[in-house]
Amino acid sequence: MKRLLVILGAFGLTATGATSVVACNNKNVADNDLSKVKSITAPTVVTAVKSESVTKDEVKTALAANVLLAVQGIAKTAKADDFTYDVFKDNKGTTYSNVNLKTGTADVYVKITAAKGKKVVVNSSGYIKVTLPKEGTVDKKDIAGTTVVDPQLIADSSKKYSDLLANQTLITAVVTGIKTKTSLDTVVTTDFTLTSDKTATASQAAGSVKITVTAATGSTKISGKFDFTILLKAATPAKKDITGTTVVDPQLTADTSKKYSDLLANQTLITAVVTGIKTKTSLDTVVTTDFTLTSDKTATASQAAGSVKITVTAAAGSTKISGTFEFTITLK
Questions:
Q1: N or C: which end of the chain has fewer CB within 10 A?
Q2: Section 39-61 average pLDDT
Q3: pLDDT score of 112 more than 90
Q4: Nearest Cα residue to 142 out of 197, 219, 67
Q5: Do 252 and 225 share a structural domain?
Q6: 182 C-beta neighbours (distance < 10 Å), count
Q7: Among residues 104, 132, 160, which one ends one of the domains?
Q8: Are residues 208 and 225 in the same domain?
Q9: Final residue of a domain: which of 232, 263, 283?
Q10: pLDDT (0 to 100) of residue 44
Q11: Is residue 169 a part of any domain in this protein?
Q12: What residue numbers bound the domain in which 96 lies?
C-alpha cells in the first residue's frame, strides 16, 4: 500500500480509501479562463419593486454591467452574450432566495459560465461574493488621493479666478483624474465642485493655483475631496502689425566700393527702420531677431546713386511684430 501511495504521489494523485482524485494544482490556466475572475464590483443601487424582498432578476439586472466589466478584465473583447451568470444564496450554490435591502445590505454569490459555442471566455468562475447596498444608500467611491495632470493653462488677466474654475479644459482634467482613480464618469456641480486658494474676484495672473475638488453632497457616485496645483503661464503678448510703418530716409551716400547687400547691413539704415517701427508700435526691435531687410536691387551689384526700395519683413520667430512694409530711400 505504501508503494502504491508513493506512485500516486509521483503523478500528482492522492488516495483515500477506494477513491482517487487528481490534485488541482494546474498553473497553466488560460488567460481567458473565467476562474481568473475573483471579484465583481457591487452595484451602487439595486432597483426593486419591493426593497424588502428583492428578486433574483432584479439583482441580476443591477449586476449586469459590473459582471461584464469583470469578464472584460480577463478578455477585453468579451460581450454580454459570451457568458451567462447566475446568483446564489451562498458559495455552495444554494438556490437564491429574495433578500431584504430595506433594513440593510445583503450578500449574494455570483457564478459566471462561458456561453455554449463561444470561445471568447472558457469554463466558469467560482462563487463570487457581492454585497448589495441597502435601499437609499450608495456605495460611493472616495476621491481622496486623486491625481490630476496640469492642463497648462494661460493666465487671462481680463478674467477672474472664478472664471478659471469654470474653464472647460480644467474641468475635463479633473473628470479624467477622477475616472482614472474610480473608473466613474462624473459631472461638475452634480458630482463635485471646484474652489481655489485665490480670491474669486481677483484677476488671473501667472503663477501657481491650488485647486480643491470636493464631492457634491448629492452625488451618488463619489465622496471625499482632494487638492492639486496647476501653474498658470504668462500670456504671450500679441504681436503688433508693422504694416504701414513710415521710415525717414537716412540720406545715405552710395559707396561704389560696396554691394547692395552691404547697404542692408548699414547701421544708419537699420537704426532708421528700428525708429520707424518703434514710432508705429512703441516696441524696441532688433534686426534679424525681429525683422529682415531686402531690396529691389541685386545683392551682389555695386551701389550707385539713385532710389532703392527697401522691404522690411517681420521675422517668423519674433515675439513682438508681424507683417511687412516697404519704403524708398535715395542714395546720393
A1: N
A2: 93
A3: yes
A4: 219
A5: no
A6: 16
A7: 132
A8: yes
A9: 232
A10: 85
A11: yes
A12: 30-132
| pLDDT score of 225 | 98
CA gyration radius, the chain: 38
Same domain, 35 and 115: yes
In a domain, 152, yes or no: yes
- For residue 325, name the pLDDT band (cuts at 50, 70, 90): very high
Q: Which amino acid is at 66?
A: N
The enclosing H or E element of 109 equals strand 106-114
Q: Are 323 and 285 within 8 A, CB to CB?
A: no
Residue 182 near residue 252, CB atoms below 8 Å = no
Side-chain-facing half-sphere of 87: CA atoms under 13 Å? 23
* Nine-digit cell string for 46: 439595486
Q: What is the spatial distance between Cα 120 and Cα 92, in angstroms, rounded to a whole number?
A: 26
Total tally of structural domains belonging to the chain: 3
Per the domain annotation, does 158 fall within a domain?
A: yes
The number of beta carbons lying within 10 Å of the beta carbon of residue 301 is: 10
Question: Under 8 Å CB-to-CB from 249, ≥6 apart: which residues?
Answer: 272, 327, 328, 329, 330
What residue ranges in 217-318 does DSSP mark as E strands? Answer: 222-223, 225-232, 240-241, 291-295, 306-314
Q: Is residue 6 part of a domain?
A: no
Rounded CA-CA distance 120/45 in Å is: 29
Query: Is 0.90 surpassed by the pTM of this model?
Result: no
